[in-house]
Specification:
Its EC number is 2.5.1.26. With about 525 residues, the chain is α+β, with helices and mostly antiparallel strands. The chain is about 35% helix and about 20% strand. The structure holds flavin-adenine dinucleotide (FAD).
Length: about 525
């Protein structure tokens, strides 16, 4: 895994950038009519930034808290902390639009420094965007700076330590800026793992996972990230919250849940206590084929409801299977029907049982439900390419195709309606996009649907996508799904989230924000509307 700074205009380690394979160019031309010549991103130095709005004396006060080496106003630092990694974010950055840049990047080195910065920024009305790995795909890193003296990105990268390991309780304490690969490396030295492998694994941080309620590819075996959090320390402008002194508690509402998913709008997570598991010593991945998505979905539901869930489970619909997206190293060579990937590991919730026995238990269900075993190869190909798909997005954007993902979740009985509603909304807004879908987070009562959309760029590609996104959000709300299973709310889902929780729900969130952050400096515009300027 990489230790390189992420590509500022795209995804991942620049050294791992991928050319579009010829078969993908054929797909683009034949399916979508994309023929335009490639357009590269502008150079970093050509990104247009607004002037630094923070006055020098205020920059000096920030430097007094963290040290002058940790207050950055250089062009490069500001560009690298502008927006997140959604496709509209990348389209804007590629075109040199740095209008959402923070005035300064501030890197605190301790909880106390974070707390002091929040006090100072409240007093001086400086908006603060907590910045973890910078991989938000919902506009969670674009503050509304209007009405503020300026905006800082609070980069948590210096808070990067494993603080303690309680091997008896299987609890590890971390600072929030630890990136996922480093967390795994540090835990591996103790024979432990978190088992959290989202596709953004290479760059996202533990604090960002908690703040945005992330869910990884092995969620069936290890749980969502919010399930792993047993304790949190949070700095807020009004004081420190220290939550979680037992695995479960009947002492009133669980305030940890108020922080999980708060996306930097209520406070800054400065340490996390996480449930960890013993690292698996055996992994087996395999593929299965189902005739239709409906048949595959029924099989996946049976696995969940009969207690036979593998550690990793992913069911592609017919289009995703045909394109071969589950095996990013071999896109364009997909099969027919629907591909199911199952991964069985010796760790996770079922620790102790033999992998062979688990595999056999799941196989009995999948066979009964009409599945045809395809052997290990499709599962191993998925495992090899599990983090590589996002690298293709940059080449697709350059080639004139917009590619973006979106996701929702619902109860089993409502899932087919949700699937149809999202596809209909996309077709209505985009004409004939390529829409692929998979199920990859599965529960006894329902599952998430994860869509990948590819369309030829027309006119202003950001406006083109935003129209589609608005239509999809409305469709999800109207069909009774949640606006996000794991990407979060940010700014992009704010209205739909408000519709989901209703006016009373929004007023509760506002009341919490008003109590913890009376000056409204924390990530204004994320989660709930910003104060009127
Ligand atoms: C290619 C790609 C693939 C992805 N795949 C997945 C996936 O499989 N599963 C998934 O769940 N998500 C996925 N995501 C989304 C993203 O990675 C997650 O939302 C992740 O949790 C963000 O972590 P981060 O450290 O990058 O946080 P950031 O993007 O830096 O921040 C996310 C939000 O949390 C806030 N925040 C960050 N750190 C803190 C803190 N310490 N205290 C308070 N607030 C904080 C920020 O202000 C922001 O609102 C993907 C994103 C990309 C670009």
């Amino acid at each position: 895994m990489t230790g390189e700074p992420m590509l500022w205009s795209g995804w991942g380690d620049p050294a791992l950038a991928r050319e579009l394979p010829p078969e993908v160019r054929v797909l683009l031309r034949d399916f979508l009519g994309v023929r335009a010549p490639d357009v590269p991103a502008v150079g970093l130095e050509s990104v247009r930034l607004p002037p630094v709005a923070l006055p020098e004396p205020l920059l000096g006060l920030l430097a007094e808290v963290v040290g002058s080496a940790y207050v950055l106003t250089s062009h490069e630092a500001r560009v690298r902390h502008t927006r997140g990694k959604s496709t509209p974010d990348l389209l804007r950055m590629r075109a040199g639009d740095g209008s959402a840049a923070p005035d300064a990047v501030v890197l605190p080195g301790s909880h106390e420094e974070v707390a002091e910065l929040l006090r100072l920024c409240s007093a001086e009305r400086v908006a603060v965007i907590p910045f973890g790995g910078g991989t938000s795909v919902v506009g969670g890193l674009t503050a509304s700076g209007s009405g503020f003296t300026g905006v800082i990105a609070l980069d948590l990268g210096r808070l990067d330590r494993l603080l303690s390991v309680d091997a008896e309780s299987l609890v590890a304490s971390f600072e929030p800026g630890v990136r996922a690969p480093e967390a795994e490396r540090l835990l591996a030295a103790h024979g432990l793992t978190l088992g959290h492998f989202p596709q953004s694994f290479e760059y996202a941080t533990l604090g960002g996972f908690a703040a945005a309620r992330s869910s990884g590819q092995a969620s069936a075996g290890y749980g969502r990230f919010d399930d792993m959090v047993v304790g949190l320390t949070v700095a807020t402008p009004t004081g420190t919250l220290d939550l979680g002194r037992a695995p479960k508690s009947a002492a009133g509402p669980d305030l940890r849940q108020l922080v999980l998913g708060s996306e930097g709008a209520f406070g800054v997570i400065t340490s996390l206590r996480l449930r960890v598991r013993r690292a698996p010593d055996e992994r087996r991945y395999e593929g299965w084929r189902f005739g239709t998505f409906a048949e595959g979905t029924a099989a996946v539901r049976a696995l969940a409801q009969e207690g036979q869930l593998p550690t990793v489970l992913r069911l592609s619909d017919e289009t995703e299977t045909m394109i071969g997206l589950a095996k990013p190293d071999a896109i364009g060579s997909g099969g027919s029907g629907c591909l199911l990937i199952a991964g069985h590991e010796s760790g996770g919730v079922l620790e102790g049982g033999s992998v062979a026995a688990r595999q056999a238990g799941a196989a009995a269900v999948l066979t009964r439900m009409g599945g045809e075993p395809l052997g290990a190869e499709p599962g191993e190909a998925w495992e090899r390419g599990r983090f590589s798909a996002p690298y293709l997005r940059d080449s697709l954007l350059a080639a004139g195709a917009t590619v973006e993902t979106l996701e929702t979740a619902g109860f089993w009985a409502n899932l087919p309606r949700l699937y149809d509603a999202v596809r209909l909304a996309l077709a209505g807004a985009l004409g004939s996009p390529l829409v692929m879908c998979h199920i990859s987070h599965v529960y006894e009562t329902g599952a998430s649907l994860y869509f990948t959309v590819v369309v030829a760029q027309e006119g202003d590609p950001v406006a083109q996508w935003e129209r589609a996104k608005e239509a999809v959000n409305a469709a999800i709300v109207a069909t009774g799904g949640t606006i996000s299973h794991h990407h979060g709310v940010g700014r992009d889902h704010r209205e739909a989230y408000a519709a989901e929780v209703g006016p009373v729900g929004v007023s509760i969130l506002q009341a919490v924000k008003d109590r913890l952050d009376p000056a409204g400096i924390l990530n204004p515009g994320t989660l709930i509307p910003p104060p009127a300027a």
